[in-house]
Amino acid sequence: MQDHWQRKRAILALLNQGGFVSGEALAQELGISRAAVNKHIESLSEYGVSVFSVKGKGYKLEKPVHLIDEAKLKAGIRQRSFYFDEVNSTNAFMLSHAQELKSGDLCIAEYQSAGRGRRGRTWVSPYANHLYFSLFWRFPQGMAQAMGLSLVVGCSLATVLTNMGVTGLGLKWPNDLYLDGRKLAGILVEMTGQADSECQLVIGIGINMSMTAEQGDKIDQPWSDLSDLAQSLDKTELMLNLHTQLCLDLQQFEQAGLGTFINRWQESDLFAGREVVLSMGNNQIAGICRGIDEQGAVLLETPEGIKGFVGGEISLRGA
């Protein structure tokens, strides 16, 4: 498996230099046959990497592919970091090793074969196009006190990306980050343990870095990515900054609760002061979004007054 990915990484490094590269040049550089090169290119396409093939010219990437610098990553994080070319799910990996992990331990994958979103949705995970990772955290106060954690994580993402020059960001309750009104990142928090004693949290995050047209067509909602900043936004640096901010914010949340994050949430709340519809199963509640409370509930102003809701999926009211 390792040799399989070393070959693919070598091909990607050559193609990342820009322009077309002939199959003969790739074969000569890697010391393999033309047929082997072709098989690796086909395999990369199956993993979601878009490669153009033109007879007489060779191969060319639709978009540059940005990989995590593993040495830089591990040098910049004092906790353990697990880095994979391919894994079924970073959350699943962390959950399966929960008893061995410490707060701040990290798992990153360039490709997830079974990436998951909220409510069992599939998270489209093409190889190296985006940033997929999970952070582990031991929470001594139990699951009951971890309510609203996804909102804290959203604040962390917004803070880091804003500090790195991204504008047009907005947070959507309870677990999404939007860019220019379209989904940029998703958060999936999973827990094991007790309601009133120590629990283990696995915080999964997917951020769209550079979506290809083919992969974008598989997504059933408006999406955005950071491709406009691909040349200036270093993927490894982004990961290091996110890890630092998440650890700081999780420590603050553990000590002081969600109340200290309400102002940060409101600064980025995508729907603040806007008419929305909250879907809860077969029920829909219309109102004006008035932010969140200290338990992580979304607050809606309805004809009966301001009410808090902790379940459902929020969406803008249709015209």
Automatic annotation (TrEMBL):
NCBIfam families: birA_ligase, PRK11886.1-2, PRK11886.1-5. GO terms for molecular function: biotin--[biotin carboxyl-carrier protein] ligase activity. Its EC number is 6.3.4.15. Pfam families: BPL_C, BPL_LplA_LipB, HTH_11. Residues 23-42 bind DNA. Gene3D superfamilies: 2.30.30.100, Bira Bifunctional Protein, Domain 2, Winged helix-like DNA-binding domain superfamily/Winged helix DNA-binding domain. Belongs to the biotin--protein ligase family. The keyword Cytoplasm does not apply. PANTHER family: BIOTIN PROTEIN LIGASE, BIOTIN--PROTEIN LIGASE. It catalyses: biotin + L-lysyl-[protein] + ATP = N(6)-biotinyl-L-lysyl-[protein] + AMP + diphosphate + H(+). Keywords: ATP-binding, Biotin, DNA-binding, Ligase, Nucleotide-binding, Repressor, Transcription, Transcription regulation. It comes from Shewanella corallii. Residues 76-254 form the BPL/LPL catalytic domain. The gene is birA. Acts both as a biotin--[acetyl-CoA-carboxylase] ligase and a biotin-operon repressor. In the presence of ATP, BirA activates biotin to form the BirA-biotinyl-5'-adenylate (BirA-bio-5'-AMP or holoBirA) complex. HoloBirA can either transfer the biotinyl moiety to the biotin carboxyl carrier protein (BCCP) subunit of acetyl-CoA carboxylase, or bind to the biotin operator site and inhibit transcription of the operon. This is Bifunctional ligase/repressor BirA.
